[in-house]
Design goal:
Elements lengths: L9 H62 L11 E4 L2 E7 L4 E10 L2 E11 L18
Antiparallel strand pairs: 1-2, 2-3, 3-4
């Protein structure tokens, strides 16, 4: 029986095996990095959602107190944190532990309060970047 020599030597198959192992290792590391990034984002989102619902619950309690005061014919500004912003208009702000505030405004008419604003926004001042780095066009 005649043996045919292999065209591919031991060195070529070793190189191919090494490339496969390196590729699989690279994909495993990339998967691990992505999983850690996803876990960090999930944790940050959970904290943000928790902060919002905490502020929302406290705002609803404040609105219930305001409804009670209006029904009893009392001045809503007697409640701590409520300010008068205009004719029959009142507002209050609820702070959150993640650096946001929940701003609530309402208008009182005919013995009932209608919420006109219920906005959850950042309490920090936004600072824009300088326009030096932004392309302004050809100028033509």
């Amino acid at each position: 029986m005649k043996k045919y020599p292999s065209r591919m030597g031991v060195g070529a198959s070793s190189i191919l095996l090494i490339l496969v192992v390196v590729s699989l290792t690279l994909f495993a590391v990339l998967s691990l990095v992505q999983a850690r990034a996803d876990a960090a984002l999930t944790e940050k989102t959970a904290l943000s959602v928790s902060a919002f619902y905490d502020a929302d619950a406290r705002a609803q309690q404040m609105l219930a107190q305001l409804d009670g005061a209006i029904t009893a014919g009392q001045d809503p500004t007697a409640i701590d944190g409520v300010t008068r912003t205009g004719e029959n208009e009142y507002a209050f702000t609820i702070g959150s532990f993640d650096g946001h505030t929940l701003d609530v405004a309402m208008q009182v008419e005919n013995g009932r309060a209608d919420v006109t604003r219920y906005r959850y926004e950042s309490a920090q001042e936004w600072v824009g970047e300088s326009t030096d780095t932004v392309w302004q066009g050809d100028g033509a």
